[in-house]
Amino acid sequence: MLLHATAAGLRAISRHRRLVLVLWAFGLALSLAATFPLWRALAAAIGPLPHADSLSFSAEIFADLVELRPGLMTGLGAAAASTFGLGVLVGIVFAGGALEVLTSRDDRPFAHRFGRGAFRFFGRFLRLGAITCAIALPLAALVGGPLFALSTRLRRDSGSEWLAIGTWGAALLAIGLVVLVVLLVQDAARVRIVTTDERRVRKALRPALSTVWRGKAAWLGTWMLNALALLVLFAAYLAVAEAIPAGRALFLLLLLQQAFVLSRCGLRVALLGSEVALVEALTPAPPPTPVEPLPAHPPDSAPEPPLA
Fold first, then answer.
1. Is the pTM of this model over 0.70?
2. Confidence label for 266 from pLDDT (cuts 50, 70 and 90)
3. What whole-number distance in Å separates Cα of residue 87 and Cα of residue 28?
4. CA 289 to each of CA 285, 286, 293: distance values in angstroms, whole numbers, following the listed order
5. Residue 61 in 3-state DSSP?
6. Exposed, middle or buried, 210 (CB in 10 Å: 0-12/13-18/19+)?
């Protein structure tokens, strides 16, 4: 099943290249929307300083700016929060459009299918995300809280620093596993909402949880393969970026960065294609509709009334 899902993800990349380009364009627009206000705020803060033209931005200069302008961190924090919220909304829009393109069987244009899914399922995916957060936060606290408390007690009573650090790391690992499972259930619920057009979001969560639980090895394996491919791409990006000399080759570095982002978008589309294949493979077929047997002999027709 894992190989089947991986093959489906690779087919999704080859058949839906426009989805990869749309996701890349969304990410580029979001990055520009976040970077431009940040650059303007930093330029306004650095500009009045003496010898501002000769300054090169560094962590020390940023620390001095925070000390000289106390409201700078508040503004940057608000900008970061706004960018994060906008990124969540953009992710929901793309998920709805991408799943509609991946699962629809009609011959309408790509833009029509993507826009139909993006706006048709936006409200349902938004409610699903709120329910997912409401479930994930208590579960993470329930799993990680006792381990964090145990780590603090071990550090205080036994004095074993390594044992306390190991317990603390186990708590982070348990929280990460809980969050990952909840996100996988959310992805399965998204696929079911799109394929069945289910309007009640909570009704889609139970079969989604059952789908993930029945194929837990395939779901976790698919996610791990995708994450491993992303790590390999990132390592290759760092290796090539280190080999590019600074200065005039800045344009090549920007091209390399966008190539990495485009590859990451392809992995995202592949993950969606794999999840669609897993939901289709793990969803039980509906019971056949019983068909009434035809009578062996046609019923006798009623006698015609006599003519007056």
1. yes
2. very high
3. 11
4. 12, 9, 13
5. helix
6. middle
d(CA 52, CA 11): 52
How deeply is 295 buried, as exposed, middle or buried, from its count of CB atoms within 10 A (0-12, 13-18, 19+)? exposed
User: Is 129 or 42 the better-scoring residue by pLDDT?
Assistant: 129
| DSSP H or E segment with residue 172 | helix 161-196
Q: How many helices (H) and strands (E) does the chain have?
A: 10, 0
Cβ pair 141, 151 in contact under 8 A:
no
Query: Out of 97-111, 184-198, 291-305, which region has the weakest mean confidence (pLDDT)?
Result: 291-305
The string of pLDDT tens digits covering residues 69-111 is 666 666 667 777 777 888 888 889 989 999 999 988 888 888 8
Q: Say how far apart CA 181 and CA 9 lie, in whole Å.
A: 20
Spatial distance between the Cα atoms of 135 and 300, rounded to a whole number of angstroms: 64
Two tokens, residue 242: 């280190």
